[in-house]
UniProtKB/TrEMBL annotation:
UniProt xrefs under SUPFAM superfamilies: Glutamine synthetase/guanido kinase (SSF55931)
Family, per entry: Belongs to the glutamate--cysteine ligase type 3 family.
EC number annotated for this UniProt entry: 6.3.2.2
Biased composition (Polar residues): 1081-1091
Protein name: glutamate--cysteine ligase
């Protein structure tokens, strides 16, 4: 028994559910079928059918008359044709049937008649429905088989389906699909037909309404004629418009030709202008040199007039119970064993001060003569026995020393007598001067200066009173004139002479020598070394003060001067000191920096003329990695100096053999000895061709560097080296971390740092100022087999070489974290930075503010550093590592201790996010700067008095709460009008997400903004894509006057979220909801030059398009309804990365939408647009990979990106490590994994390895595209 399809006649195999169909299921199917038509009901008559129609009576009457006429009319057909007409007969009784339920059929009694008529019907239907086989088995079989019973049920079901519907059953699946397609098509056609009837009905109703209104045929014809006339007039106007369009097109072509001619004329003008400038510079060089010399001499004279050399030379203060002079303590107390070498040096300075004051006042002591000779000074009697008393002592306990100490007491009493003579004379000259302690014989106040029979506390108190009297006397001597004293004497005398000389004071050179020697003394005191000062008379009669004793200087070269907070040097030796005199040179660069910045601000209009010739700078940093295929190890090559020595002549040769319009690249050293920085020879200009040459220039620089490396060395653009500081060999050649004399690191050797003096000095000074090593703790990525709690076994816990070695075991290294302890971990990273030049200071401030909220977004989108010190971290970005690596804040500045020696509690490291919006534009509401901002009030007041506004003054005074870390000793005194070295020294060591850079002196370069948050990518294609995107976004911001302001606190929160693992897909960020300005502040002047101005949230653009990316956009006016004053909480909300980049709708089209809107204002050629779209598509697909927040299980970690999206480098790197065969799921990145990873990165860059989840499928790579140089501006 088998079934066949009623359409294709192919055998069918019934489903098991039909073979074994339960009675209840059978009943359910039958009940769902349409009811059977009642064939016994007589059909309605024609009159009844006509009566049921919804038609007017007149229409029905017309139909009846027509029907009667047709019935009466004889047929016109021939007999043959009439014979072919179908014969209609009433339905036969045997053609209808009654549906019986299954239960009725089963219980029906057998009858003889059931086998003939009904059997014939059944057989006929069975044949029709595809049933083949014997059908003569009687229904009343006493024991029917189950199979037969179920097949009979199925057959009955098929017959019912065929009878109740228009389709014969059964059907195969293919025929069913065809049938469904046919029925669907018929349904669509029926719908269309229905819609046509509906439309026709509407037209009929309208026609009836018009008839009711009484419109005549004549009116309709007149209306038609009028419409035809209007059509003729419109056609004529269209032809006129087309002719006008052709004329305008011709005029446009003429204007374009004129524009080209003007551009050529402009180029010629600039060439002539530059030639004129060079010629003028050559002709006026001598005059300029004379003026510069005059300005320098005038500035030096003014500085000397303001300088109080006495206060610099003799800094009197206190250190607990001790009085100090130049940092040297004078006295002794139990429990604080001050060395006699320090006491003697302090007495020598005290005697020199008294001698200097007396000579300044032209005062002669009675009975005594002072002989200042450093630590071996003495006082001679000029009457009587003319004895000489030594003003220095010793702690030795023998008879000769006791006699000497008695002479020491005589010397101190004689000193006190001389001090009394001078104070009495001063009182006689000025009765208003008051000294708090009276001098009577050997006592000052109630304490004796004699040591032999006095307690040490009383002796120390007496010496403190002596220093206080000298300080008051010194102030009175200089007459409180703010340092302007004795200029005539200092100008006429170049130096201060020794004993017996008539000159009045020490020279500036001698003062610096004294300060340097004092710092050496302080270093000796701190280290417990013997130290003394000896004053010798040289041939020309001057004083020479030199250190005596065994003292070893620090290995810092002489050209660098770590002055601040315990770091002070002379010109020839670098030593450590912690005195106030040692800290004082910090104020020198800070003081000069203010004047240098004010000079830059006064010339803030510089850069306008040169703007067309300047643009964007995009340096790239490389790590040089050496591969050893035999040991499967990839290490850092510490051959920076040798590589640069080979690259320098290569770039010089390129410059010599190429055309003058070609710009040769340059290479520079970086912090790590394995790092190279390459920059284009000149900035990229505002032209589209120059902007789109970024990728080619990057590839050219990479390949140029590769050609001058060894065969197994590769320049790689990776943010962090995965095994930097891990156990084993990670550098070539290998060095031991035990020799890290500047960082004292447990993991990084000294040789990993650039050998130039700036870098090791910077490293050491951060550690010294902080008072400990830096402590960086990144959360560890906890994998399936990671030990918990994780206590790092690679830390040398028991090392005891440097004083800071116990810090790790004392709590600096946290459990479940990756611990790093040196500046090299952060400053040894690579990043992608962009520098924009602005039209003027106002535009630079607007761009600076607008890019602040973009910083965290781009940090998350370019995240590329999940591996640190041989472990997988639970973060994706470098930011906190660098912030911790240069955090020189003391415990007081970090808020761990109450303020005592420091002035400010500083919330952030030197390397962190921006703290303040600085634009004075009306969009910048005060509420956005909602973070506490410590700043130096004195610097702020000075800037305000100079006319600098509130926000910019706060910005600078906030930067200047930090000390300079490294200072050139040769650059301490310089012309502030010709140099900004002091300002840049502090500015360049405040590393933030953006940097606001003033114009350099004597340069056409204007105000600049440096964008610093992005991480470097593996390929030049990615780096160029993000560079082009940020450049276009900056132009869109300025041209459309976009408003990205959100509170600074939310920017900081975005920075925290941006570093989280997989932040681009799983995190949300605060961003502004409405970025377009209010309608009443729309800037029509901007749009007239090709810019965009949004109208009702949708940007519109002028018809004139430009080929250059413009600067110098005018400021939009404030809204006519006033500046908004509502709550700022409603101005922003949390968005996913996809929403921020790709938009949420018309009100916020996304950053990419804004860029594309800006591109419509430019005259972009087709091939240029294709390249730009390739870059923008990378950004778009990076942002599209949004996933839901499902926790951090192993399944979540391996969740793939949605189809069509691209992963961040950090996500790809983490998944590469976790899928490596050698990975043990213990969070460790082994040497083999590191080797294979870096090999893969190199192959990806060269285009050898395809990674469709990281890069577009059409990416070619560096092997096929060697790059090219770009032309100069």
């Amino acid at each position: 028994m088998a079934f066949v399809c009623q359409q294709c006649k192919q055998p069918l195999q019934l489903d098991a559910s039909l073979v074994d169909l339960a009675p209840s299921a059978y009943d359910m199917i039958v009940g769902s079928l349409p009811p059977q038509l009642d064939t016994h009901t007589p059909p309605a008559s024609e009159a009844e059918q006509l009566a049921q129609l919804p038609a007017p009576s007149s229409v029905k009457a017309a139909w009846r008359s027509s029907a009667h006429a047709n019935a009466a009319r004889p047929s016109t057909l021939s007999p043959r044709a009439q014979g072919k007409l179908p014969v209609r007969s009433p339905p036969l009784p045997n053609e209808s049937f009654v549906l019986l339920q299954d239960s009725v059929i089963r219980n029906a009694p057998p009858s003889a008649s059931s086998s003939s008529p009904s059997g014939n019907v059944t057989n006929t239907k069975s044949a029709v429905n595809g049933f083949k086989g014997s059908t003569h088995e009687p229904d009343d079989h006493p024991n029917p088989s189950p199979l037969s019973h179920h097949l009979q049920s199925t057959l009955r079901l098929m017959n019912l389906l065929s009878s109740r519907t228009d389709i014969d059953h059964p059907l195969c699946s293919e025929c069913t699909h065809l049938l469904l397609s046919t029925l669907t098509r018929q349904l669509e056609e029926t719908k269309k037909e229905r819609d046509g009837y509906i439309a026709f009905e509407k037209e009929v109703r309208k026609e009836k309404e018009r008839e009711k209104d009484g419109i005549s045929k004549e009116s309709a014809e007149r209306r038609i004629a009028q419409l035809q006339e209007d059509e003729r007039i419109a056609v004529e106007q269209l032809r006129d418009a087309e002719r006008e369009h052709e004329q305008l097109a011709e005029e446009m072509r003429a204007l374009e030709l004129e524009e080209e001619a003007l551009e050529e004329e402009e180029d010629e003008f600039w060439r002539m202008h530059n030639s004129h400038l060079l010629k003028s510079a050559e002709q006026s060089s001598q005059l300029a040199a004379l003026r510069a010399a005059y300005a320098a001499d005038s500035a030096t004279l003014e500085r000397l007039e303001r300088t109080n050399v006495y206060n610099d030379a003799f800094c009197i203060g206190h250190d607990g119970v001790f009085g100090t002079i130049n940092g040297l303590r004078l006295g002794r107390v139990p429990g604080v064993p001050v060395e006699w070498a320090e006491i003697n040096a302090a007495w020598g300075q005290t005697l020199l001060l008294l001698y200097t004051i007396a000579r300044k006042l032209d005062f002669t002591f009675e009975n005594y003569r002072l002989v200042p000779m450093g630590s071996f000074s003495r006082i001679e009697r000029t009457v009587g026995d003319k004895a000489s008393y030594e003003l220095y002592g010793s702690g030795d306990l023998h008879l000769g020393r006791l006699l000497h100490n008695r002479r020491f007491d005589f010397a101190m009493v004689a000193f006190l007598d001389c001090l009394k003579q001078l104070t009495d004379w001063a009182k006689s000259q000025d009765p208003s001067i008051e000294f708090p302690h009276q001098i009577v014989k050997d006592k000052i106040g109630e304490s004796s200066v004699k040591l032999q029979f006095s307690q040490e506390e009383a002796w120390t108190r007496a010496l403190r009173h002596v220093l206080l009297a000298l300080k008051i006397l010194l102030k009175w001597t200089t007459n409180g004139s703010n340092g302007v004293y004795g200029h005539s004497e200092l100008s006429s005398r170049g130096r201060a002479t020794g004993v017996g000389s008539g000159n009045s004071g020490p020279s500036i050179r001698q003062v610096r020598a004294i300060r340097a020697v004092m710092n050496v003394a302080e270093e000796s005191r701190c280290r417990g070394l013997p130290y003394a000062l000896r004053s010798e008379r040289v041939e020309n009669g001057t004083h020479s003060i030199t250190p005596v004793g065994s003292f070893s200087a620090s290995p810092v070269p002489s050209s660098f001067s770590p002055f601040c907070h315990g770091l002070a040097v002379s010109r020839h030796t670098a030593t450590l000191g912690r005195s106030k005199a040692a800290r004082r040179p910090c104020q020198i660069p800070r003081y000069h920096s203010i004047f240098e910045y004010m000079g830059s601000f006064e010339g803030s209009d510089r850069g306008r003329a040169a703007l067309g010739r300047r643009g964007t700078l995009a340096p790239v940093e490389y790590m040089v990695v050496s591969f050893d295929s035999e040991s499967k190890n990839a290490v850092l090559s510490l051959c920076q100096t040798e590589i640069l020595n080979e690259l320098q002549p290569a770039t010089d040769e390129i410059e010599a053999v190429t055309d003058d319009s070609i710009s040769a690249p340059t290479f520079h050293p970086e912090y790590g000895r394995y790092m190279l920085e390459s920059t284009p020879g000149s900035p990229y200009t505002g032209s589209l061709s120059s902007l789109l040459s970024v990728e080619a220039n990057m590839r050219y620089r990479r390949n140029l560097a590769r050609k001058h490396l060894k065969e197994n060395e590769v320049p790689m653009t990776v943010t962090s080296f995965p095994r930097l500081g891990a156990p084993g060999t990670f550098t070539q050649p290998y060095y031991d971390p035990a020799d890290a004399v500047s960082s004292h690191s447990l993991f990084l050797p000294q040789e990993i740092t650039n050998a130039h003096a700036r870098f090791p000095t910077l490293t050491a000074n951060i550690r010294r100022r902080r008072g400990s090593k830096v402590a960086i703790n990144l959360p560890l990525f906890i994998d399936d087999r990671t030990p918990r709690p994780f206590v790092d076994p690679t830390i040398p816990w028991q090392r005891n070489i440097y004083p800071e070695d116990p810090e790790a075991r004392n709590g600096a290294a946290l459990n479940d974290h990756i611990y790093m302890d040196a500046m090299g971990f952060g400053m040894g990273c690579c990043c992608l930075q962009l520098t924009f030049q602005s039209c003027n200071v106002e535009e630079a401030r607007r761009m600076y503010d607008a890019l602040i909220p973009i910083g965290p977004i781009m940090l998350a989108l370019t995240a590329a550093s999940p591996l640190w010190r041989g472990y997988i971290a639970d973060v994706d970005s470098r930011w906190n590592v660098i912030a911790g690596s240069v955090d020189d804040r003391t415990e007081e500045e970090r808020g761990l201790k109450p303020l005592k020696d420091n002035k400010f509690v500083i919330p952030k490291s030197r390397y962190d996010s921006v703290d303040l919006y600085i634009s004075e534009h009306w969009m910048n509401r005060p509420e956005y700067n909602d973070n506490p901002l410590p700043y130096d009030q004195s610097i702020y007041d000075r800037l305000r008095k100079h006319g600098i506004d509130d926000l910019l003054s706060k910005h600078i005074s906030h930067l200047f709460i930090r000390d300079p870390i490294v200072i050139f000793s040769e650059l301490i005194d310089q012309d502030d009008s010709a140099s900004t070295d002091h300002f840049e020294n502090i500015q360049s060591t405040n590393w933030q997400t953006l940097r606001f850079k003033p114009p350099p002196p004597n340069s056409p370069i204007g105000w600049r903004v440096e964008f610093r948050s992005m991480e470097v990518q593996m390929t030049d294609f990615e780096n160029a894509a993000f560079a082009v995107f940020i450049v276009l976004l900056s132009r869109a911001i300025m041209s459309m006057n976009l408003n990205f302001y959100i509170p600074i606190s939310k920017v900081d929160e975005n920075m925290r979220r941006a570093q989280q693992r997989d932040a681009a897909r799983s995190s949300k960020f605060y961003f502004r909801k409405h970025v377009f300005p209010p309608p009443s502040s729309r800037n029509t002047s901007a749009t007239s030059s090709g810019a965009a101005s949004p109208i009702d949230g949708v940007p519109t653009f002028s018809r004139h398009k430009e080929r250059r990316l413009r600067n110098c956009y005018p400021l939009p006016p404030p809204p006519e309804e006033g500046i908004p004053h509502g709550r700022i909480e409603g101005e922003y909300q949390e968005y996913s990365m996809n929403e921020i980049i790709n938009g949420t709708g018309v009100k916020f089209p996304g950053l990419l939408g804004l860029v594309r809107d800006y591109l419509t204002t430019l005259d972009v050629e087709a091939h240029e647009l294709r390249k730009i779209e390739a870059y923008l598509d990378l950004v778009k697909r990076r942002a599209e990979g949004e996933i839901s927040h499902l926790g951090f299980s192993s399944v979540m970690r391996q969740q793939p990106c949605p189809p069509g999206t691209l992963k961040t480098p950090a996500t790809w790197i983490r998944e590469f490590v976790r899928s490596h065969p050698a990975y043990k799921f213990d969070s460790v990145v082994s040497q083999e994994i590191n080797y294979d990873l870096l090999v893969a990165v190199d192959e990806i860059e060269r285009g050898v390895r395809r990674v469709p989840d990281l890069l577009p499928t059409d990416y070619t790579g560096g092997d096929k595209d060697q790059g090219a140089l770009h032309k100069k501006a």
